[in-house]
From TrEMBL:
<dbReference type="GO" id="GO:0042645">
    <property type="term" value="C:mitochondrial nucleoid"/>
</dbReference>
<dbReference type="InterPro" id="IPR011990">
    <property type="entry name" value="TPR-like_helical_dom_sf"/>
</dbReference>
<keyword id="KW-0496">Mitochondrion</keyword>
<dbReference type="GO" id="GO:0046872">
    <property type="term" value="F:metal ion binding"/>
</dbReference>
<keyword id="KW-0460">Magnesium</keyword>
<dbReference type="GO" id="GO:0004526">
    <property type="term" value="F:ribonuclease P activity"/>
</dbReference>
<comment type="subunit">
    <text>Catalytic component of mitochondrial ribonuclease P, a complex composed of TRMT10C/MRPP1, HSD17B10/MRPP2 and PRORP/MRPP3.</text>
</comment>
<protein>
    <recommendedName>
        <fullName>Mitochondrial ribonuclease P catalytic subunit</fullName>
        <ecNumber>3.1.26.5</ecNumber>
    </recommendedName>
</protein>
<keyword id="KW-0862">Zinc</keyword>
<dbReference type="InterPro" id="IPR031595">
    <property type="entry name" value="PRORP_C"/>
</dbReference>
<comment type="similarity">
    <text>Belongs to the PPR family. P subfamily.</text>
</comment>
<keyword id="KW-0819">tRNA processing</keyword>
<keyword id="KW-0479">Metal-binding</keyword>
<keyword id="KW-0378">Hydrolase</keyword>
<dbReference type="GO" id="GO:0030678">
    <property type="term" value="C:mitochondrial ribonuclease P complex"/>
</dbReference>
<dbReference type="InterPro" id="IPR033495">
    <property type="entry name" value="MRPP3_PIN_dom"/>
</dbReference>
<keyword id="KW-0540">Nuclease</keyword>
Length: 581
């Protein structure tokens, strides 16, 4: 899509300024003709553009007895002890940092050393700057850099005027969009409105990027209601993004249009779109000045939405929630930021947080779903045959329920400096001494003698635990899940695999949340199992990290600003809210 510029004198001004590049003896405007290359409309599209100015249980007891790491001298592979559990926010990053090995890093890309202008340039100056550029598209590159570095708007104006003069009046569409982006960044609403006027006059439909920029720019102006009209136009061709809704909702609240804000929020949820946390925070920030029970109930519904979707507010959002609760007249709410003890007791108010264990009904529901969607079919991540799976099912059914199921290959590779069969034997031996009924899952190649797999050590493993060795091409995880769930809610499993692929196979968000909850309460992660040292595990959470209430209290886990949390981790900091008595 390109813009062809022709000199005319009758179109309204898009950029109001004095002539900057001399296009002729008379004062003139530039009209942009956009050639339609996206197939939306057939007729020509016009803009006007003025030239620029020059200014600018057992298994449970096992975990309880193995919560703290005892140092093993000489082992540089072990993880230091702290209060983090396997799914704690920031734990994965710490593991990655400690396990990182020296790697050859790619050389950084060669960067252009051109310095961005800070003032508008004339034609000769732009020519010289382009001559110094080493790359394919100087114009696209430099306006992208301007947008990235938030360059002054008038510098970008001079660039587009130079491009038009040098290209027979043609300015590429992406240059104009990036200019509009720069205007939005600088909140130059008058510039945005001028662009909008021309677009409105000449276009029936815009691309999604144009709608997004115009909505964001207009919502801050005194013509903010027209952003809602653009949102309606966008709905005719696609479902608006959650950012589109966020801009409109925040704009409505900014201009005190509360009903429109709530209507847009309900519409957003109706599309099954997860709202931005900034959107939800805006409702709480606005609510500090609202003394209305209906509004308060809607905010409480937002907290329940966070719970049901296992969403966690950021630190700033948590402060907004605290401020709103404490501002509610007559309720005497008091908030504090705190942590939860390993016992599941709130360090702030002493209340006990909800258990991580599934109810019998939820457990049976999850078990059925995993059996059907992950193990029996639909799991594109497993590599096994129906015959082998049937052989394993018959094997498990012939055994008493297990206390712990071990991913043998995963455990054997946890400490690279140790021989794999020796490491596996060390883990199995220490667990067997506690009279735990064990199942070790492995591959058939583990039974073949090699430098990593000694036959006598594997024979000893088979004496102390029941073992099932699948074909070498098979995936262990479905077997592990089947055996653990079949053994009952008391059974734990040992692996460092996060099971994200199998979680993704589950059909809906609610089932995935139940799976993650079950996983947190049943997965044992070895901190230290190096041969010759005491086997220790990271502790398993006893409580569920989710927004929860008892009516006279709320407990809300939140993300700290400086802690990087991966999607399979949960926060460790909490907002505790309770009514003063």
């Amino acid at each position: 899509m390109t813009f062809c510029l022709f000199r005319i004198q009758s179109f309204p001004k898009l950029w109001k300024s004095n002539s900057y590049l001399p296009l002729g003896p008379r004062h003139s405007y530039l009209c942009l003709f956009m050639a339609d290359s996206c197939g939306i409309r057939k007729q020509p599209r016009w803009f006007s553009l003025k030239t620029i100015s020059s200014q600018n249980t057992k298994a449970t007891n096992l975990v309880a007895n193995s919560r703290y790491l005892r140092k093993y001298n000489g082992n540089d592979n072990q993880v230091p002890s702290d209060s983090l559990h396997f799914f704690s926010a920031g734990a994965a990053k710490k593991r990655s940092q400690m396990n990182s090995q020296s790697k050859d890093h790619d050389l950084p890309p060669v960067r252009n050393t051109i310095q961005l202008p800070t003032q508008p340039l004339n034609s000769e100056e732009w020519d010289k700057l382009k001559a110094d550029f080493k790359g394919r598209s100087f114009e696209s590159w430099i306006i992208s850099q301007m947008a990235h570095d938030r360059s002054p708007v008038d510098v970008a104006k001079s660039l587009l005027a130079w491009v038009a003069a040098k290209n027979n009046g043609i300015v590429a569409y992406d240059l104009l969009v990036k200019y509009l982006h720069l205007c939005v960044i600088h909140k130059q609403t008058s510039e945005v409105i001028d662009v909008y006027e021309i677009m409105k006059a000449r276009y029936k439909i815009l691309d999604s990027g144009g709608y997004t920029l115009l909505i964001r720019g207009l919502i801050q102006s005194d013509r903010w209601k027209e952003a809602f009209l653009l949102l309606e136009d966008l709905k005719k061709v696609m479902t608006p993004s959650r950012k589109n809704y966020d801009d409109c909702i925040q704009g409505a609240l900014l201009h005190q249009d509360v009903n429109t804000a709530w209507n847009l929020y309900q519409e957003l949820l109706g599309h099954n779109i997860i709202p931005m946390l900034e959107t939800l925070k805006a409702f709480f920030d606005f609510g500090k000045d609202i003394k209305d029970d209906n509004y308060s109930n809607k905010l409480l519904d937002i907290l329940l939405y966070l719970r049901n979707n296992q969403l966690y507010p950021g630190e700033s959002f948590a402060h907004s929630i605290k401020t709103w609760f404490e501002s509610v007249p007559g309720k005497q709410w008091k908030g504090q930021f705190t942590t939860i003890q390993k016992s599941g007791q709130c360090s702030g108010c002493g209340k006990t947080i909800e258990s991580i264990q599934l109810s019998p009904e939820d457990y049976e529901f999850l078990k059925g779903r995993i059996m059907r969607d992950v193990i029996d079919g639909g799991d594109q991540y497993r590599k096994t045959t129906p015959q082998e799976l049937k052989r394993f099912e018959n094997f498990v059914k012939s055994c008493p329920p297990f206390d712990i199921v071990i991913d043998g290959l995963n455990v054997a590779k946890m400490f690279p400096k140790a021989r794999e069969s020796k490491l596996l034997l060390n883990v199995v031996s220490q667990l067997a001494k506690q009279n735990l009924r064990l199942l070790v899952l492995g591959r058939k190649h583990m039974l073949r003698k090699s430098s990593q797999w000694r036959k006598d050590e594997m024979e000893e493993v088979q004496k102390q635990a029941r073992c099932f060795f699948a074909d070498n091409i098979s995936k262990d995880d479905p077997f592990l899940l089947y055996a653990t769930l079949h053994s009952g809610n008391h059974c734990k499993f040992i692996t460092n695999d996060l099971m994200r692929d199998h979680k993704a196979c589950l059909p809906d968000a609610n089932t995935q949340r139940l799976f993650f909850k079950w996983q947190q309460g049943h997965q044992l992660a070895i901190i230290n199992g190096f041969p010759g040292s005491k086997l220790t595990f990271q502790h398993i959470l006893s409580y569920d990290t989710v927004v929860q209430t008892t009516g006279d209290s709320w407990h809300i886990p939140y993300d700290e600003d400086l802690v990087e949390r991966y999607s399979y981790e949960v926060p460790t900091k909490w907002l505790c809210l309770h009514r003063k008595t």
